[in-house]
Amino acid sequence: MLGGRLPPDCRETDGDARPPFSFLCSPPTELIIFHPVSPKKRIAIIPGDGIGPEVIAEAVKVVQASRAGVEMTHFDWSANRYLADGVTVPPDGFAMLERDFDAILLGAFGDPRVPSNIHAKEILLGMRFRMDLYANVRPVRLLDASLCPLKGVEPRDIDFVVVRENTEGVYVDAGGVFKTGTPDEVAVQEDINTRKGVERVVRYAFEYCERHKKHDGAPRQRVLMCDKSNAMTYAGGLWQRVFKEVGREYPQITSQHMYVDALCTQMVRDPRQFDVIVTNNMFGDIITDLAAGLQGGLGMAASGNIHPGKTSMFEPVHGSAPPIAGKNIANPLGAILTSAMMLAHLGLTREAEEIEAVVLEAVRQKKTTQDIGGSLGTREAGEWVAKRVAG
Ligand code: NAD
Ligand code: IPM
Ligand code: MN
Question: How many angstroms separate the most distant Cα atoms in the chain?
Answer without folding.
Answer: 94
